[in-house]
Design a protein that fits this description.
Oligomer: single chain
CATH topology of the largest domain: Aspartate Aminotransferase, domain 2
Shape: globular
Structural class: alpha/beta
C-alpha cells in the first residue's frame, strides 16, 4: 500500500518526510475516522493541491492583480467563484480566505469596529472561538455577548438570543458553530437580527456539504454573510470561503484583501474549484444525505447502549456525547479510542463541570466514514466498538484496545480511501 499520487521525488529528496506521509496515509486507512471536522478528499483534489500553482503569487482579485503572469490563475479563481455561487445560490463568493478563522475575522473587519458588541454562541455550548470567545482576538478586540442552549433540551435558547440582542444591540450576530448536532434555525436568527439591525453571519463550516447537497436548510436569503471552510462535509482542501448578498460583497472583498491577507494560495483555490465541481454532481447530494443517515444510525445505536447524547440525537453529521454516566471523562476515552482504532476528539458539553482540556464529552461525525462507503447497517458495529473501548478505558484494560484495533483494521479492508492504494 502506498500514497497516491506517488511520492517518488519526495522519497528521493527527503525520505524521512516521505516515510511520515506514508505512515499517515496508512493510519488514515486503518482507523475509523470520526473527527467531525475531517474527511477524505478525492484524488483529483489531492492532485490539484500539489501542482505548480503553489509557485505563483497573486495579490488582488481576478483582473485586478498586483503581479503579472495571471493569465491562468485568474480563470482558475473565477471558476471557483462561479461554482460556489451556483452551488449555494448566492450573489457573491470570495474563495481566498486561508481558513475558517480568517474568514470570520473578515466579517468583523467588514462590518464592525473594535469595541463593537457582537453576539455569538458560547464555546462550551457549541460555538466557535471566533464567535467572540475570551481567548480569541474576537473576544479581546470586540465586546462579546454570548448565548447558549437550554439545559433540558440541549438546543439553542432563542428567548435568550432575542433578549440579549434587544438588550445589547450587537453589530454582528453569529449563528452556527463547531459542536451543534441539530438543524440551525436560520429564519429565526434572521428575524432577531432584523429586529436589532444587526448583520447576521452564518458560520456553516461544519454543514456546508450538507447545505450544498440539500441535507440541511440553507442560510441563503436569511444571513447576509455566510462563512465556511471548504473541507469537513464539503470534502475539499483546507481552505475557506465567504458568501454574501450583493449589498455586502464589496465590504467582504475589501476585508479579505487588503484587510487581512496578501496573496491567495492558488493551489488551494484550484482544489476548491475541483471540490465545488464535484459537489455539483448528483452523487454529492446522495453523499450528503448518506452522511445524515449514518449519523442518525450511529446515534440510535449508541443511545441503545446507554450513551447520553446532547439534545438526544442528531439532525446532521455530528454527535456530541456526555460520558458522565460511563465513569470515564472525555479525554482518556478519546485517547483510548484512538489506540483502539477509532479517531475522534474530546469535547466540552453544555454546562460541563469539568475543565475544557479535560472535559466530560466526546465529539464525533460521520462524514469520513460515509466517504469510505460505510452505511447505516454498519453503525451498530461501530457503536459496539466504541462501547467496548469506553468500557475498557474505564477498567484500564489495555489489551482489549489492541484486540479492537485488529478487528477494525480487518473490517476496513473492503473500504478503500482516496490517496492510498496497493
Amino acid at each position: 500500500m502506498t500514497h497516491q499520487p506517488a511520492l517518488s521525488a519526495l522519497a528521493a529528496t527527503d525520505p524521512r518526510i516521505a516515510e511520515l506521509v506514508e505512515d499517515e496515509a496508512q493510519r488514515q486507512h486503518d482507523k475509523i475516522r470520526l473527527i467531525a471536522s475531517e474527511n477524505y478528499v478525492s484524488q483529483a483534489v489531492l492532485e490539484a493541491t500539489g501542482t505548480v500553482l503553489t509557485n505563483k503569487y497573486s495579490e488582488g482579485y481576478a483582473g485586478r492583480r498586483y503581479y503579472e503572469g495571471q493569465q491562468f490563475v485568474d480563470p482558475i479563481e473565477t471558476l471557483a467563484i462561479e461554482r460556489a455561487k451556483a452551488l449555494f445560490g448566492v450573489d457573491h463568493a470570495n474563495v481566498q480566505p486561508y481558513s475558517g478563522s480568517p474568514a470570520n475575522l473578515a466579517a468583523y473587519l467588514a462590518f464592525a469596529q473594535p469595541g463593537d458588541t457582537v453576539l455569538g454562541m458560547a464555546l462550551p455550548d457549541g460555538g466557535h472561538l471566533t464567535h467572540g470567545w475570551s481567548v480569541s482576538a474576537t473576544g479581546k478586540w470586540f465586546n462579546p455577548v454570548r448565548y447558549g442552549v437550554r439545559k433540558e433540551t440541549g438546543r439553542v435558547d432563542f428567548d435568550q438570543v432575542r433578549d440579549l440582542a434587544r438588550q445589547h444591540r450587537p453589530k454582528l450576530i453569529f449563528c452556527g458553530g463547531t459542536a451543534i448536532p441539530r438543524t440551525i434555525d436560520f429564519p429565526k436568527f434572521a428575524e432577531i437580527a432584523r429586529e436589532v439591525d444587526a448583520v447576521l453571519v452564518a458560520d456553516i463550516a461544519h454543514i456546508a456539504g450538507l447545505v450544498a447537497g440539500g441535507a440541511h436548510p440553507s442560510p441563503v436569503g436569511h444571513a447576509q454573510v455566510i462563512t465556511t471552510t471548504t473541507h469537513k462535509t464539503l470534502r475539499g482542501p483546507r481552505g475557506a470561503m465567504i458568501l454574501s448578498d450583493a449589498d455586502h460583497a464589496k465590504a467582504v472583498d475589501k476585508a479579505v484583501f487588503p484587510g487581512l491577507q496578501g496573496g491567495p494560495h492558488n493551489h488551494t483555490t484550484a482544489a476548491i474549484a475541483v471540490a465545488l465541481g464535484e459537489a455539483q454532481q448528483p452523487s454529492f447530494a446522495e453523499y450528503a444525505h448518506a452522511i445524515v443517515a449514518n449519523a442518525k444510525a450511529l446515534a440510535d445505536a449508541l443511545v441503545e447502549r446507554g450513551y447520553d447524547l446532547v439534545s438526544g440525537g442528531t439532525d446532521n453529521h455530528l454527535l456530541l456525547i456526555d460520558l458522565t454516566n460511563k465513569a470515564v471523562p472525555g479525554k482518556p476515552a478519546a485517547q483510548a479510542l484512538d489506540r483502539a482504532g477509532i479517531e475522534l476528539n474530546y469535547n466540552t458539553v453544555p454546562f460541563d463541570p469539568r475543565k475544557p482540556f479535560d472535559p466530560s464529552g466526546i465529539r464525533l461525525g460521520a462524514s469520513a466514514i460515509t466517504t469510505r462507503g460505510l452505511r447505516p447497517e454498519h453503525q451498530p458495529q461501530v457503536a459496539e466498538w466504541i462501547d467496548r473501548t469506553v468500557t475498557a478505558a474505564a477498567a484500564q484494560d489495555e489489551a482489549a484496545l489492541g484486540t479492537i484495533a485488529a478487528e477494525i483494521r480487518e473490517f476496513l479492508t473492503p473500504f478503500p480511501i482516496p490517496g492510498y492504494s496497493a
